[in-house]
């Protein structure tokens, strides 16, 4: 399945946002929207038309962290797949993320082609209807 | 503390100890010795065997049972030394004995020696605790450094890969060479940083497994796909003998993938350029007692020298074999492999092939879900 429309990356490190945006563009003709922290991410989410078809969220961020951002996004209507980005996947973090409504988590140091493969699998398996680009 | 019901027999010793500035507590029965010990906590105990009430041997047992390793060294005294030394149940905590009658100076040198030992032991304990605290601080620091380095390194490596696969335009030969170096260096650093993170987690006892049903054959096939590129650079190929079915096993996908990646990376490092690396996945016979799957990676390297075998799965246990393509080895990988495999209830071993046929590294994982 091709990824289209808006995608949202929330990560406090600009180099991660840049790298992940390159990855996302291999998955389809997407518009990549970036936020540098959780609050900014939630605000940006509400302004995106169409709503994002995929959200990538860093777990460790200053301010509201990724897990809280995830809960807020789900509570405020985000129905697309949400993937958590981690440097270290501790069991507690992963459990919190899954309980908070994340669809998947990816370690940032996973080889590029494997991140692409995992995202493809997730999008293929996702039962969430992905909104078409306007 | 001197424990003897015959005051006069220990009086000369009491006097000489006082002369040298020792603080002395006396007790005349085993029961009194136990009470006196509790309130005074002496540094050494001289205990007569024959006492009214519970005897000296029983008093020793009770002291050791109550205070364990912290119990002061006990010197037993007896007029029947032969009986004492031949006793099959010499109580723990008794470090010495004096045959009565003894000269006060004879006892003095014994007491001095045991007090000195005790001081050393206590100092050692304090030092060990300090070291342990420093080690925790070091691990925390190392963990923080590695953690903060991991993410930018992953970005650098990933971006170098985008440049390398010409998705954003083509590079000339010199540019390609520079990008290849950036990629390789960042990959090496990322591996090192991740291994340091693993070591710090292992040393702090923080290895937790995220168990999930995982198709093992698929996991291995993916690892081989990724390893094929560095293998090809050394004109090597990787042959996979998969199991007929793809066993679904409860395991921590990331950790076991790391084990497979590490074994493949080592095989590529140490095999002769142009050789073949063989990977196999074997399922247990239905009737087999041990329901374990077995994953083996056979290299074409020099094998493991018997003299170095004990270092193989230890932290920083670098062996004399050198990588055949100038790669780096830090001696951490296999110790991490062992920790992760054993955390799953599995085993890992290395067996040299006869006739210089390299080495086979095999690990097993139980088929039944581990706890």
Task: Tag the structure with descriptive keywords.
heterodimer, A: 134 residues, alpha/beta, Rossmann fold, five-stranded parallel beta sheet, B: 371 residues, Heat Shock Protein 90, 2 domains, five-stranded mixed beta sheet, 12 strands, 49% helix, elongated
Strand order of the largest sheet of chain A: 2-1-3-4-5
Mean pLDDT of chain B: 87
Apparent shape of chain B: elongated
Q: What is the CATH class designation of the largest domain in chain B?
A: Alpha Beta
Q: How large is the radius of gyration of chain B?
A: 32 Å
Low-confidence stretches of chain B: none
Order of helices and strands of chain B: EHEHEHEHEHHEHEEHEEHEE
How much strand content do the residues of chain B show? 15-25%
Order of SSEs of chain A: EHEHEHEHEH
Global morphology of chain A: globular
Number of strands of chain A: 5
Q: How would you classify the quaternary structure?
A: heterodimer
- Count of strand segments of chain B: 12
Strand numbers in spatial order across the main sheet of chain B:
2-1-3-4-5
Radius of gyration of chain A equals 13 Å
Mean pLDDT rating of chain A: 87
Write down the CATH topology of chain A: Rossmann fold
The largest sheet of chain B is:
5 strands, parallel
């Amino acid at each position: 399945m091709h990824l289209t429309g808006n995608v949202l990356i929330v990560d406090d490190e600009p180099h991660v946002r840049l790298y992940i945006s390159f990855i996302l563009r291999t998955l389809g003709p997407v518009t990549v929207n970036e936020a540098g922290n959780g609050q900014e991410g939630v605000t940006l989410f509400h302004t995106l038309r169409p709503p994002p078809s995929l959200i990538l969220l860093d777990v460790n961020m200053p301010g509201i962290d990724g897990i809280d951002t995830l809960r807020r996004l789900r509570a405020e209507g985000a129905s697309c797949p949400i993937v958590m980005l981690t440097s270290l996947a501790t069991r507690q973090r992963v459990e919190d993320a899954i309980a908070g409504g994340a669809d998947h988590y990816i370690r940032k140091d996973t080889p590029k082609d494997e991140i692409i493969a995992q995202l493809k699998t997730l999008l293929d398996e996702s039962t969430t209807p992905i909104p078409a680009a306007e | 503390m001197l424990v003897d019901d015959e005051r006069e027999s220990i009086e000369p010793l009491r006097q000489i100890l006082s002369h040298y500035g020792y603080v002395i507590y006396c007790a005349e029965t085993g029961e009194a010795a136990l009470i006196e010990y509790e309130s005074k906590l002496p540094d050494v105990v001289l205990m007569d065997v024959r006492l009214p009430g519970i005897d000296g041997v029983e008093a020793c047992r009770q002291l050791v049972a109550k205070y364990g390793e912290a119990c002061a060294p006990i010197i037993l005294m007896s007029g029947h030394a032969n009986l004492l030394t031949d006793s099959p149940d010499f109580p723990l905590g008794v470090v010495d004995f004096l045959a009565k009658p003894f000269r006060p100076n004879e006892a003095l040198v014994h007491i001095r020696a045991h007090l000195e030992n005790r001081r050393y032991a206590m100092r050692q304990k304090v030092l060990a605790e300090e070291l342990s605290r420093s080690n925790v601080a070091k691990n925390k620091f190392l963990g923080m450094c590695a953690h903060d380095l991991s993410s930018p390194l992953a970005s650098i490596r990933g971006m170098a890969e985008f440049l390398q696969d010409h998705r954003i335009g083509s590079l000339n030969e010199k540019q390609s060479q520079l990008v290849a170096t950036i990629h390789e260096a960042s990959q090496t650093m990322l591996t090192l940083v991740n291994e340091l993170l693993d070591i710090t987690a292992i040393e702090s006892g923080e290895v937790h497994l995220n168990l999930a049903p995982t198709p093992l054959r698929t996991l291995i096939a993916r690892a081989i796909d990724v390893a094929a590129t560095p293998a090809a650079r050394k004109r090597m190929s990787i042959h996979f003998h998969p199991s007929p079915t793809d066993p679904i096993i409860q395991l921590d996908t990331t950790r076991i993938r790391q084990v497979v990646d590490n074994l493949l990376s080592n095989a590529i490092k140490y095999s002769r350029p142009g050789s073949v690396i063989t990977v196999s996945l074997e399922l247990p016979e239905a009737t087999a007692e041990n329901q374990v799957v077995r994953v083996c990676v056979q290299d074409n390297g020099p094998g493991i020298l018997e003299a170095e075998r004990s270092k193989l799965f230890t932290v920083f246990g670098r062996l004399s074999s050198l990588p055949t393509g100038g790669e780096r080895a830090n001696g951490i990988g296999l110790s991490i492999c062992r920790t992760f495999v054993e955390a799953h209830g599995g085993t890992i071993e290395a067996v040299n092939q006869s006739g210089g046929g390299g080495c086979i590294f095999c690990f097993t994982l139980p088929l039944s879900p581990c706890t």
